[in-house]
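Worked example 3 (structure in, sequence out).
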């Protein structure tokens, strides 16, 4: 079946709205575009779809409300703008959804909510309960207290995590770009749009450029990271430009809009999804080809297959496992910190006990704590 044909059957849909989509060039909130988006989402709900909205724009909305023209540079000032903007933004969404007979419920998440498995599951249960009640969850990063996310601004990743949390069928990211290109179209006139992506390769990652908007903080690279999460969680993802009325319905009708990323067939179980996407990534382990084959066959990651260790992390941290070509193969929780791993990398299990007499684990990452990404 064509990838886009599957979107026609998507029942549970997460829609991420970028700052540039709901903000005018002057910095004012684009009420007309917001109204149209809400009308479109409300109509989709009437058609029987379940909708989760992930909305950026809290800081920009706060700036507009406080009549501040230049984006604050300090974290406390941006947190203050977010504190103001979140309330204003949610009031607008509540009012607009109510005018179409729909109820919106605000959900503020932080990275800390996902670091502990019980909080990850609680977030999932709260979102599912809202959907069961017929409400539209409106999700945002809790920028008023979150520091790391304010630095990297990846509500794209947040939307993919939410899509994974609620077992969504589709994730639509609306932005100021109309999809992935073979190169940065602003710098390369011969850059061509990419209609479909079946797998995130190093080449695809290289095609992702930098920040695209003056008012938002995300770029194409954060959307590629979001695609990794969505695809691994069994969610079909689409990146499209959000400045045109009817774009969401066109996507869900299978029209060739933007770039579509094909979902993998196997959904990650809840704990595996948490291991892969709910925890902060602290470093990288590069492994040899034999190790990659073994992990794909269901084996744990052993020290013998490790060829390089990057980062400064402790035992029980989450790391990426890369192939020799730099491609991400897996993620997992390590039993050893950086210092010890560099000592035992490439060594057999017998040698580990000689190098680290107090070593408690034969595996660097046990298969129960390992999630394959490809």
């Amino acid at each position: 079946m064509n990838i886009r044909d599957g979107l026609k059957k998507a029942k549970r849909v997460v829609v991420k709205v970028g700052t540039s989509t709901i903000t005018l060039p002057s910095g004012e909130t684009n009420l007309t575009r917001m109204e149209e988006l809400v009308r479109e989402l409300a109509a989709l709900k009437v058609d029987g779809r379940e909708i989760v909205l992930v909305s950026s724009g809290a800081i920009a909305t706060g700036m507009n409300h406080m009549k501040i023209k230049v984006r604050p540079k300090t974290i406390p000032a941006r947190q203050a703008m977010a504190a103001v903007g979140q309330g204003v933004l949610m009031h607008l969404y509540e009012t607009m959804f109510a005018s179409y007979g729909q109820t919106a419920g605000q959900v503020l998440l932080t990275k800390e909510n996902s670091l502990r498995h019980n909080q990850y599951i609680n977030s999932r249960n709260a979102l599912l309960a809202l959907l069961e009640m017929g409400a539209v969850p409106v999700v945002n990063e809790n920028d008023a207290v979150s520091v790391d996310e304010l630095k990297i601004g990846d509500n794209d990743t947040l939307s993919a995590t939410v899509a994974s949390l609620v077992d969504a069928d589709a994730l639509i990211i609306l932005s100021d770009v109309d999809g992935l290109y073979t190169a940065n179209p602003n710098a390369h006139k011969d850059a061509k749009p990419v209609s479909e992506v079946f797998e995130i390769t190093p080449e695809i990652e290289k095609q992702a450029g930098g920040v695209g908007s003056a008012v938002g903080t995300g770029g194409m690279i954060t959307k590629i990271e979001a695609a990794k999460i969505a695809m691994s969680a069994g969610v079909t993802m689409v990146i499209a430009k959000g400045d045109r009325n009817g774009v969401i319905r066109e996507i869900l009708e299978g029209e060739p809009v933007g770039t579509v990323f094909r979902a993998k067939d196997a959904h990650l179980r809840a704990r595996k999804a948490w291991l892969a996407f709910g925890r902060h990534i602290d470093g990288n382990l590069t492994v040899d080809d034999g190790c990659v084959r073994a992990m794909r066959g269901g084996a744990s990651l052993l020290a013998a297959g490790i060829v390089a260790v990057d980062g400064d992390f402790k035992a029980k941290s989450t790391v990426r496992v890369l192939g020799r070509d730099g491609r991400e193969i897996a993620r997992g929780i390590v039993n050893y910190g950086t210092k010890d791993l560099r000592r035992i990398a490439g060594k057999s299990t017998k040698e580990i006990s000689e190098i680290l007499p107090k070593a408690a684990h034969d595996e660097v990452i046990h298969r129960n704590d390992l999630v394959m990404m490809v």
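Notes: Residues 36 and 300 are 50 Å apart (CA to CA). The chain is about 40% helix and 20% strand.
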